[in-house]
Amino acid sequence: MTDSSFEKFIRSVIHSLTQSKITYVLVGGLVATIFGRLRTTIDIDVIIDNHEENIIRLQRVLKNNKFDFTENEILVAIKERSHCSIFHKEFPFRIDLQGIYSPLDERSIQNRIKMIILGQQTFVEKPEDLIVAKLVYGSQQDLDDVKAIVLRQKRDLDMDYIHSFAIKEGVLDKFDLVLKELS
Fold first, then answer.
1. Which residues have CB under 8 Å from 135's CB, separation 6+?
2. Residue 156: strand, helix, or coil
3. How many CA atoms lie within 13 A of 142 on its CB side?
4. CA separation (Å) from 40 to 88, 118, 134, 150, 153?
5. Is residue 1 very low, low, confident or very high in pLDDT (cuts 50, 70, 90)?
6. Cα–Cα distance for residue pair 128/126, rounded to 1 Å
7. Which residue, 90, 161, 102, 84, is CA-closest to 128?
8. pLDDT in tens, 57-106
């Protein structure tokens, strides 16, 4: 069986992040797919440490691994507390990259877990944090992801943690509604 181009892209992203030796965490749709259900995504969402020397190192590694972006694009986006999309020269997919801008982002970095994806060790957002983040963002896709993660991971989730974090982020009502819909 041959790898899909998205699988090759994922490997390239993980390899580049690991090679750069920066602090990062994969979040968003790819991680929702791992913990919840298979769904389409064309990007890999990544939160990175905001320190300038890390960003410069990451830019160098990404350039060496055939990612396409303008000089200092990542550094400028991070300084502006924005995100940037980084494309690969060989694949029609992108990395959506951002820094640590909020307590939610900080928690994602602090609580990240190691996981093997396609044979490579990487860091991903833990499912409880992903659930709360998706409740905060609140699109229909995000809520569908939450339902899938809860259904698939139910026995392994720390529900007290989710409740406490959901209260802190002001989304407990959304979480309770999801649980009601699932029962």
1. 142, 143, 146, 166, 169, 171, 174, 175, 178
2. helix
3. 16
4. 18, 17, 16, 19, 20
5. very low
6. 6
7. 161
8. 999 999 999 999 998 899 999 999 999 999 999 999 999 999 999 999 99
